[in-house]
């Protein structure tokens, strides 16, 4: 089976493209709703190695969307371990490592580069996204993935998602205005600051960190956009689009036409190669 495994995609982008994909070893941070889709697709595409990091464990409410989960999996099982099992079942030749680790702690304790050209940011918190961007800027290409479901006063919510491919040439999620400043503040605040803010707004502190709705279909669209741009770039099909946005209420995917902002706290040096 091995020699024929990739035959249908080699028809698309050639043996050389497949070899380039095999030579990648992407790092996927977040193995939840979006990350588990990304991991599955990278495994099927035929990357040579995969490094997976996720701090969380399985909860019963994840069963509607976590790719690779079995009905027999108990709550409390590490999501990183579930993702590792998924990869091994798809292709045991992939060199996969999975760690259950807090992303901010990982960033703070890290004393060497990530050792990869590709980082997929599939976390669900803009504070963690920003820290990750800060860490990656100037190095590997970052593909930042997010879905969004925004309640409306009447009727069903607005829904969609987006990816941002940041490689130093076209800005980053920060200057492209994709992060929520308030969410960043909440995420990076300590317990006292969170308590102060909660009192100011008259809500419980945990409500400031509340997770939104999540559905397998939306996660799958965003993950597919991310992996498709990865494939296009690595296999030499075309340059990746810096931002692709899925607007669920209209049923369209659009590439951002916004001009590149003049300067950015996070990617100026990356842009100039400094
Ligand atoms: Zn930027």
- The figure for the number of domains is 1
What is the CATH level 1 assignment? Alpha Beta
Q: Helices and strands, in N-to-C order?
A: HEHEHEHEHEEHHHHEEH
Q: Examine the coordinates and then state which fold CATH places here, giving the name of the CATH topology.
A: Rossmann fold
Please explain how this structure is put together:
The structure is a single chain. This protein has 274 residues and is of the alpha/beta class. It has one domain: NAD(P)-binding Rossmann-like Domain (Rossmann fold, 3-Layer(aba) Sandwich), CATH 3.40.50. Helix content is 39%, strand content 16%. It contains ten helices and eight strands. It has helices at 7-22, 33-45, 79-90, 103-109, 126-136, 181-188, 191-201, 205-208, 216-234, 268-272, and strands at 27-29, 49-53, 95-99, 118-121, 141-150, 158-166, 243-247, 252-255. The chain has an eight-stranded mixed sheet with strand order 3-2-1-4-5-6-7-8, sandwiched between helices. Helix 3 links the parallel strand 2 and strand 3 (95-99). Helix 2 packs parallel to helix 3 (79-90), helix 2 (33-45) runs parallel beside helix 9 and helix 5 crosses helix 6. The radius of gyration is 19 Å and the shape is globular. The model has no long low-confidence stretch (mean pLDDT 92). The structure holds zinc ion. Residues 171-172, 174-175, 264, 266-267 line the site of zinc ion (ZN).
